[in-house]
Amino acid sequence: MPNDFLSPADQAAAEQQQRLLAAQVVRHDQLPTTIRTVAGVDVAYAQHSDQLVAAAVLLDAATLEIRHTAVVRLGAAFPYIPGLFSFRELPPIQQALAQLPEAPDLVICDGQGLAHPRRFGLACHLGVATGLPTIGCAKTRLVGSYHALGHPRGSTAELVLDGEVVGQALRTQPGINPLFVSIGHRVSLATACHWVLRCAPTYRQPETTRAADHLVNQELHRLLAAALPPAPDGM
Asked: Record-annotated residues binding Mg(2+) (predicted)?
């Protein structure tokens, strides 16, 4: 993907690029015959700084045990604008994924995919940029509406925007608030929900997201500790 797709000149150019790139999203399954590894990626922001911390965690798809991890710190190259976060977050995520010793068979992003105003959230952007199968799995709803869903684990309700199904509200644990799952790239919505549920056997969030979130928070704590002035003598 050309560099100008990651560093557009302004908000209008970024939005136009999202509309153009959205046409490249593959909405059906193009997955390996056997999924052996699944990765989680997450990004956090250092307070009062332009530093981003991205983590990529590679898990065994069968056991959900962590195989490899990578953490990257990078200065933000694009402003903080809702709906355009992928232009800030994609560069460090790509670097973190590149540091893993092997490419994952599937990536679950802590963010939106098609469930986005221009149908091109972080999961779509990452998928189109890398060619990897990706899933959007967000804690909060960005767009669309959905009907009430059942309380049991695995209950779903279609997330609809302008008459189009752009995702699913998915309850991963009984009676707990749902997650919002959407296509990223090369994964159908049904398959996306299957893998998010499979990766969330115990908690609301899939283990991919939990592991990546833990890593970025650890790194943020280290950044904060390094920035603190030394304690006065005698304390």
From this structure: 42, 110
